[in-house]
Amino acid sequence: ILFAATYRGIFKSIDGGKNWVAHNKGIASAYIQDIEVDPKDGNRLYVSTGFSGFFKSEDGGGSFYEIMGESEGKNTDTTALHPMDNNIVYAGAFGSGFLRSVDQGKKWEPSSNGIVNKSVYYIAVDPKEPKNIFATSCTCGGGIGSIFKSTDGGKTWSRADKSIAEDRMVMGITVDPNTPSTLYAVQIDHGVWKSA
User: Fold this and answer.
1) Residue 98 and residue 22: Cα distance in Å, rounded?
2) For residue 194, what pLDDT is reported?
3) pTM for the whole thing?
């Protein structure tokens, strides 16, 4: 089963990508920023829609309901899940920074201590050591390209973007699953960066 997040909504394929069907019941916007599937329960999905709220499905995308909305000021751009504890959910939001839930999204707490600009656009979690989390932000330190790292599950953060150009936004980051000490970052007009 595959899910795709697009600017026209969420699409699901049950035949390895040969055919796709839209699954957007309950979602306020067709503009989908990010989607994550619970590694322990394939029927549970989390969806960020930018300025239109944060949604959850517990029936494999058949329907969605809002768990963090625009009215709360939480304009989510990205989401990530703890690889071992599926109660822990992370969200990155414009103006609200890094947010953490320990009850599958019922309650949220801000946790951006050390992230200078409170806007988080992408999150990556170390699959082998989940306390290590990376987040991208912008308009920080005089530039717009910033990567932050937490070694305590998102409680505190520090800069982790030495040599990354600050004049373009970092659009994505991922941790090498085989060598978690290696991080890859994608930056507008500067291509892909690899940590040493």
Assistant:
1) 29
2) 82
3) 0.89
Q: Which two tokens stand for residue 46?
A: 């989390």
From edge to edge, which strands make up the β-sheet containing 2-6?
Answer: 2-6, 9-13, 21-22
Whether the CB-CB separation of 134 and 161 falls below 8 Å is answered with no
Instruction: Scan for tokens 């505190």, then name that residue.
Output: 156
What does the alpha-carbon distance between residue 88 and residue 86 come to, in Å, rounded to a whole number?
Answer: 5
Q: Which tokens go with 178?
A: 């085989």
- How many whole angstroms separate alpha carbon 175 and alpha carbon 11? 25
Whole-angstrom distance, CA of residue 52 vs CA of residue 92? 14
User: Quick one: pLDDT at residue 149?
Assistant: 93
The single residue listed with the structure tokens 């920023």 is: 33
Query: CB 182: neighbour CB atoms within 10 A?
Result: 13
Q: What percentage of the chain's residues is helix, strand, coil (to nearest 5)?
A: 5, 45, 55
